[in-house]
Amino acid sequence: MGTEAFYTTAAQVIPTILIALAVEFGLILRQLGRELERARNRDAEGPKAAPFVRNTETIEKDTDQILTISMGMGVVFAVGEVSALLALAFRWFNGWTFAGVSICLVVMIAAAAFIPIVRLHDDADW
Predict the structure, then answer these.
(1) Contact (CB, 8 A) for 50 and 42
(2) Among 29, 52, 66, 116, which residue's Cβ finds the most Cβ atoms within 10 Å?
């Protein structure tokens, strides 16, 4: 279905989107790490030291969710990139490879578009 130009472009764009996602996930994890440090300091000093800090269990749960999402994005990257490269290498320009690469592209583009919004929204709330 797709042409050679589509798979070539996809093979170049998917790693670029992964770089953007890695930066965003790193920023989110850094923010959660700071928040966790503040929560642990509050637990050591008492709740009056920092009354607006979330508890450590909530922050650890958020960190686990972000790590799970980042691993999922890694799997989507691997599937999309391998599909694009196999299509180019073996000239598998059929519906299955086109659908697989297209779905991976859409998922990664949506994640790259919405994860910064979530990060900025969460930063404003914290």
Answers:
(1) yes
(2) 66
